[in-house]
What we know:
single chain, mainly beta, Jelly Rolls, 6-stranded antiparallel beta sheet, 4-stranded antiparallel beta sheet, 0% helix, globular, RmlC_Cupin_sf, RmlC-like_jellyroll, Bacilysin_H2HPP_isomerase
Amino acid sequence: MKKRSTDRAAFEEVADGVHLAALPAGERAGMVYWRIESGATLPIHTHDNEQIGYVLEGELTAIVEGEEYALTAGDAYRFASNERHGAENRDLEDAFGLGVLAPPREEPEWRRTPPSTETGSD
Length: 122
């Protein structure tokens, strides 16, 4: 079993104001804990993976194929494979959530910082 607590997850800033922390991943799916700061934008992108997620705290505006969707704490979401999507945090508070990608995704093409090599469990 692999375990990692979100309390101990190490966030990395991968774009301005967008932070990701790796959570356990298997051969068929991977999980990430995310934080998007107030005023920050997750760049529009696509990937072959299906993606589902859940907003834990805060509010975001998801931008999917040019349409805007409000996401608030308690909302679950799904992005189909190769669907163009991103998000903006237009709120005054940071937003936190969980994302699951199947299969696990390699480094996103929009990442602006080198990946960490951290492994293990907390």
